[in-house]
Amino acid sequence: MDEQIMERIFIPFFSTKKSGSGIGLSLCKQIMLLHKGNIQVQSTPEKGTSFRLQFPAS
Which residues form the Histidine kinase domain (predicted)? Predict the structure, then answer.
């Protein structure tokens, strides 16, 4: 995914799909923040994308 899309994927209602609602990643981000965690994305165009979820130490 390119840089411009990566900057927007956690914004509510943003989607690159015609039938997408754009709430999935936004909801994931909010859930992680409510639990004092974090979600990060790393992507290389034409190769793949990975998400890293960081949870607080208990």
Answer: 1-58
Neighbours of 26 (CB within 10 A): 16
Tokens of 5: 């899309």
> Which residues sit opposite 54 in a β-bridge?
38
What secondary structure letter does DSSP report for 27?
Answer: H
Q: Which domain holds residue 18?
A: 3-54
Count of structural domains, the chain: 1
Vertex 12, ends 22 and 38: CA angle to 5°? 105
